[in-house]
Amino acid sequence: MSTKTESVEPRLRPRSERLDVLKQFFSHARRLWHDVAEGDWNDWRWQLKHRITTVEQLEKFLPTLTPEERAGALVAEARLALAVTPYFFTLIDPTDPDCPIRRQVIPRAEETHVAPYEMPDPCGEELHSPVPGLVHRYPDRVLLLVTDRCATYCRYCTRARLVSHGAQYDFHTRLEQQLDYIRNTKAVRDVLISGGDPLLLSEQRLAELLGRLRAIPHVELVRIGTRVPIFLPQRITDELCATLRRYHPLFISIHSNHPRELTIEARNALWRLADAGIPLGNQSVLLRGVNDDPVVLMAHMQKLLICRVKPYYLYQCDLVPGTSHFRVSVRKGIELMDALRGHTSGYAVPTYVIDAPGGGGKVPVGQDYVLSHDDYRLVLRNYEGKLFEYPESGAAEHTVTSSPELPTLCGTI
Ligand code: SF4
Predict the structure, then answer these.
(1) Are 316 and 352 within 8 A, CB to CB?
(2) Does 154 participate in catalysis according to the annotation?
(3) Atom 6 in ligand 1: which residue has the minimum CA distance?
(4) Residue 318 among the catalytic residues
(5) Residue 138 is a catalytic residue
(6) What is the average per-residue pLDDT within 89-93?
(7) Which domains does the chain have, with CATH numbers?
(8) Whole-prediction pTM
């Protein structure tokens, strides 16, 4: 196997230290799957078939498994299966028990602690499901859940109640009901296909799904939510891209949380999707010990742009049972956003949102940049904390009295 896991890691650590870490990654990765043929390693079906799914495999491939991780892995199945593709596994730093990649996918004992405010369906999706696997929460768009499988399972998954449990997911029966609902609900102009991960479906099945959605006249936009380009970039084949590009306008939202996930392989997969004319956005979850650091967060957002992906949302971690150890305070989340806004390209700044518990939908949260607002003027705070006045429309007919300490700045970019 050639080295597949070149990281384009940003300058988060001193160069010498970074090189040491990279050397460790590569030698570890080579040792693990050194006898795998190039063709196999680059085959997404091989990657899926050889996922790490048991405690025994974890112990074999990660000799530094901690007691907390071992305990978590032993009971993981009841909550959310353990499964990690070999490719993604090689991104784990085996020398670091707090490795941000490791934290996202290796179960821990803390998952068994359920806080009183946590709930199996934190976003109230079941409350807004008129037919199985379809969520209609906003006026003009629906969410379509088409599979319960993912390439790798994220320990904080909002849909842990649904994914990975091995039930036979009856794609066709559900699809008929879902399509009937969309056909009969003319307000639906935007369909988000999610799961599980839709890009694990075969090209044939995706073509059927997309083709039938496209045949509904009032469906203007189709979106796919996927973490496949990050967990299994081998899946983004020319054949898949050729299938997807037949159904424009088609958008894809990926899910990436840390700059180290954006390897050369992931970047190439994302570029292939972008070359197929698909606009790409990213949804991150704010996770303790993963991306709750201003340097990491900014590096991640900037690197997403290099991968031709626009950072779209940064989610406050949903109140999923067993995820308290991942949750960052909202106060800190707001501070992190403040460290981005104005300090890097606007394109690199996502919207920080809380999915309101029980089905309230996404609510943007953030620092208030409008400090006061009356009929005559607004007082604005910029990214440096400086204050500016802006006259309210029509205020020119009135006398605007400016505070001497506030420069009046109209039309400033
Ligand atoms: S890829 Fe998405 S649906 Fe699958 S486990 Fe991760 S968060 Fe959940």
Answers:
(1) yes
(2) yes
(3) 154
(4) yes
(5) yes
(6) 94
(7) 15-112 (no CATH), 126-364 (3.20.20.70), 368-413 (no CATH)
(8) 0.89
